[in-house]
Amino acid sequence: MTESSRTKPEIEFYEGPEPTDLVIIDIEEGTGAAATAGATVDVHYLGVDFESGEEFDSSWSRGQSINFPLASLIKGWQEGIPGMKVGGRRQLIAPPHLAYGPAGGGHRLSGRTLIFVIDLLGVS
Question: What is the residue range of the signal peptide feature (predicted)?
Fold first, then answer.
């Protein structure tokens, strides 16, 4: 599937209690190169709050993917993206300690469990 044929994902809400560990769900397996822990990744993503279901960020809404070294991203992405292959779509559910830290941590999403759907477009 090419990037242009992809559409903004819909979140499949997680059944069960709010997880305390990272949850990784492959929605679609990629066939390209696999991301490694030290990689720079090109991704499209959607982020929503676990509790409210409200979207807080989306590269889709900005109309362009982002390109970042994995090491500069939240722990949930650092742990949840390696092994993912280009062309794949993966859902990550990151509890606060793997997202923006405990409540009161200074980030507007501190203390929140977050759901991301990530499309891996490229690795370098």
Answer: none
